[in-house]
User: Fold these one by one.
Assistant:
Number 1:
Amino acid sequence: MDAVNLPRPAWMTEDLILLEEQARRLFAAEFAPQIEAWTEQGIMDRSAWNKLGEAGLLCAGIPEEYGGAGGTFAHEAVINREFALAGLDSIGAPLHSGIVAPYILKYGTEEQRKRWLPKLASGEMVGAIAMTEPGTGSDLQGVKTTARKSGNGYVLNGSKTFITNGQHANLIVVVAKTDPAAGAKGVSLMVVETDDAPGFRRGRKLKKLGMDWADTSELFFEDVKLPAEGLLGTEEGQGFIQLMTELPQERLIVATAALGMIERALRLTIDYVKERKAFGKAILDFQNTQFVLAECKTEATIAKVFHDHCV
Ligand SMILES: Cc1cc2nc3c(=O)[nH]c(=O)nc-3n(C[C@H](O)[C@H](O)[C@H](O)COP(=O)(O)OP(=O)(O)OC[C@H]3O[C@@H](n4cnc5c(N)ncnc54)[C@H](O)[C@@H]3O)c2cc1C
């Protein structure tokens, strides 16, 4: 039973309920049992990406003509929540499906969509987005990575850090300056296929306080040659506005995952306090446990109402 009891939101259609059940079953049977091993090894198995692709759980919001499941952002949100409810909070799939693929769908040329989206949907390619640099986080106009014109294409130079899916990714959308003198108007999104990119190097997988098997990593680009199609779309200087348009969706993805984690934590805690005994009774029977849990559930309910019902 869900820890927060609210009616299903109106946008939860029949097919979304079926998707929820499918994802819940698969994650419980084949993913959650791996968490301990993945935590030990510090990264999930690469094959898990293919498994997600085979199950149709990657790029659920991408049109079928590009290999996706033809759903909407709601489909992505349902899968994202199931990852969190199953304790799979280190997984980079919501970013792959809900951020990287939409950049290509919205801003790529038809050729770029056909080239990359089917492979992202099948799990043959793992996507990442490389914005953050050692010296630039929130203030994205300040990126130092450059993509300079060279012949018909570009040469990419720079370093990135904190990149989700950094070890597994083989399709990376890189935020770079095509015109370093033009500030925000000089920012472009470049796409790197890492399987054939001399000069591309993966750095450390970063240690964090949690998310032990998330391959959040450093990436380095040293004179990486890109073809003209290495620019996402056809017009340089659109990157900043593209980022500002898409980042709200990224924040919503983070909110959905966070809410799933809150619900899971509450459920696990309620189960525990019912079972754990001290001084001859279940610790749920102590008034203080009830006060604290009532407050947690109130806050979780408020968050869920905002998330699920204020659309
Ligand atoms: C697990 C994880 C995964 C990540 N995945 C990715 C990824 O896939 N791709 C990617 O590009 N990046 C990724 N990041 C990096 C993340 O996007 C950055 O951490 C974020 O943009 C903030 O940048 P920063 O850490 O450099 O903090 P800074 O920008 O240096 O900010 C430091 C502090 O100053 C505050 N601050 C900044 N600006 C303002 C302001 N205008 N007003 C008030 N306060 C302000 C911030 O809130 C923060 O508390 C990831 C980070 C983590 C932890």
Note: The chain has eight helices and nine strands.
Number 2:
Amino acid sequence: MELFNFCRELPKVELHAHLNGSLSKSTMLQLKRLNADSGVKDETNTFMDEFVMGAGDTRNLADCFQIFSIAHALTITPQALQIATILTLQEFQDDGCCYIELRSTPRDTPYMNKRQYIDAILEGIRNHDASNIISRLIISINRNMLQKESDEIADLAIEYFQKHPELVVGVELSGNPTVGDFQSFVPALTRARDAGLKIALHCGEICNPGEILEMINFKPDRLGHGICIHPKSGGTEETWQALCRSLIPVELCLTSNVNTKSVPGYDLHHFKEFYEAGIPIIINTDDKGVFATSLSQEYMLCAETFQLDKTQLARLAVGACQHVFDVKSRDTVKSKVLEFVNKHGLCL
Ligand SMILES: [Zn+2]
């Protein structure tokens, strides 16, 4: 089987996908029509051309923030948010994704409060035909939040985890890495963890060894990106050794890192060092809409850049199953990948 088709058909798990950043152009156009039909004020008109891009186009950081703001403007009502969730899950499923943890920051809009925001995504997950994909939600705390708001989000996450433990699985910290101080989020994250939620932290997006060490010492269940950890990509010997000792699984997002120029090129991505050192890694999209990518494309890029064969790709897919936050789904997802592996006569 040709490598492209192999990457598509290989059952994959997506563990780092921001909902609003994952909206495809076609989803955005559908939401735009929906909002027009339901009389929602359209604030995106002037920006429409910005996200109409062809395949293979790349985006710079300014474009990316522009597209985020369009996506936010489009998911302003519960109905639009629910449809955005359903369409996005469908796209991941069509791309061979068999388990996904979508993440999103609950926000107040003129049409809904934070609770209704979470309800809308959960409704989307429930209403999506789940025959080929298991979908879960991670609730995001944004680094630009004041302590009061991050406490409020942690409380909501705990409340929804207790009400819907089958759907809400974790809390994560994300947002502009130059803003906010990790320590100020520790109380909220600790409460969420004590309540049974899993924790993921965006880590090392900029060179900040002190914070990276604090994050690793916090022992989250997963780290996101982990760019400035290895000395070759802006980290220190100390941050790298701390990660090697902790063996915390890291969610890697190649296209996102290259497009935002956090990493100078695919061949210089820290995937190589992490892979060779045996750090548990998971390949993800981050924002497939913003960066015009897909999960199978990320596997393909990894294979092409680092000369991985089908067996090595399948090992990555199997390994990722160990790190899904919904512990009860681990065996189900893993057996799905192994079934594919056996069917294709690969020996892991
Ligand atoms: Zn991210």
Note: The pocket of zinc ion is lined by residues 16, 18, 174, 202, 224, 286 (CB under 6 Å).
